[in-house]
Write a structure and sequence with these properties.
327 residues, mainly alpha, 15 helices, 49% helix, binds geranylgeranyl diphosphate, binds zinc ion
Length: 327
């Protein structure tokens, strides 16, 4: 329409630069091709893939094309006796897949099929004495798991099942002198871990523990000449950091410190304009993971025509509103 054309021109983009139809077709086709390279790689983390793919479709306005009941019954067939979810049918449960399962059900407005208390007890059982979280029964500890536990329990309205104060203190103990956060106390700052720690603090109302100017500066320095963002100093830019860095900057209210047009340009340059999908860098092979992060990054940048995504919950804003404010 003429209005959209004007909005797009104002923001510096031509209409149709984002290949909406082709990206939606690409996501749907990966699900159907069961034996090519990408599908085989995805086999053990199919639950994560379902979350990336379905969230992308929703942001693009194409979620109506999927068979919701079939997805819900597959998701539920991945649930384990313990309450946790595996990456696929018959796989061991892990908190990583459990969050994806909850996010998929939230997207489809089917959270009511869950035994909420059983699932919440599984997550709560992974909290350690020092407030940290293990990913599964084998015990690896990482601030990724702190974020996941807090995000998941918040979506289920069961945050009271854990010791929130201890969980927050543990995340704060992973803060570094550069303002960033690592995977464990003393671990190097990395944009992915920063998303997790800032997200956990945002959801628990604890952002006062963040030095916003110091962290904002570190995050802005992730932008390289091409406009893309890297995850740490001296590293190559990668589309997925559009998500990890931009979402963190938005949560600490410093996204105006970055050149948003140049990030959007970098993401658009990573599209396969012929067959759909987005890659990590221009001219690399596309995958579902980077297609999700590219579209989610553009959504954070308010790219015309995309639905808004929530930077802390990593779900479309309309889904988060449905969960917390009813419909
Ligand atoms: C709901 C979005 C969402 C996430 C769930 C799993 C998780 C919570 C967060 C993962 C955060 C994280 C650590 C992301 C980084 C992923 C990544 C690209 C790692 C690569 O790191 P390196 O050091 O690559 O191998 P670089 O880019 O530094 O060369
Ligand atoms: Zn990447």
């Amino acid at each position: 329409s003429i209005i959209c054309f004007l909005v797009c021109s104002l923001k510096g983009f031509t209409m149709g630069e984002l290949e909406v139809e082709k990206h939606a077709q690409y996501i749907l086709s990966v699900e159907k091709r069961k034996d090519d390279f990408e599908s085989v790689v995805m086999e053990h983390l199919r639950m994560n893939g379902a979350y990336w793919g379905l969230t992308t479709l929703d942001l693009l306005g194409k979620l109506e094309t999927v068979d919701k009941d079939e997805i819900v019954s597959w998701v539920m067939s991945c649930q384990h006796e313990s309450g946790g979810f595996g990456g696929n049918v018959g796989h061991d449960p892990h908190i990583l897949y459990t969050l994806s399962a909850v996010q998929v059900l939230a997207l489809l407005d089917k959270l009511d099929v869950l035994d909420i208390d059983k699932l919440a007890n599984y997550i709560a059982s992974l909290q350690n004495e020092d407030g940290s979280f293990s990913g599964d029964m084998w015990g690896e500890v990482d601030t990724r798991f702190s974020y996941i536990a807090i995000c998941c329990l918040s979506l289920l309205h069961r945050i009271d099942k854990i010791n929130v104060e201890k969980a927050v203190n543990y995340v704060v103990s992973c803060k570094n002198l550069d303002g960033g956060f690592g995977s464990i106390p003393g671990g190097e700052s990395h944009a992915g871990q920063i998303f997790c720690c800032v997200g956990a603090l945002a959801i628990t109302g604890s952002l006062h523990h963040v030095d916003k100017d110091l962290l904002g500066w570190w995050l802005c320095e992730r932008q390289v000449k091409s406009g893309g963002l890297n995850g740490r100093p001296e590293k190559l830019p990668d589309v997925c950091y559009s998500w990890w860095v931009l979402s963190s900057l938005i949560m600490i209210d410093r996204v105006h410190w970055i050149n948003k047009e140049k990030v959007a340009r970098f993401i658009l340059d990573c599209q396969d304009k012929e067959n759909g999908g987005i890659s990590d860098r221009p001219d690399d092979a596309v995958d579902v993971f980077h297609t999700y992060f590219g579209v989610a990054g553009l959504s954070l940048l308010e790219y015309p025509g995309l639905k808004a995504i929530d930077p802390a919950y990593a779900l479309p804003v309309h889904v988060v509103n449905r969960i917390f404010f009813g419909r």
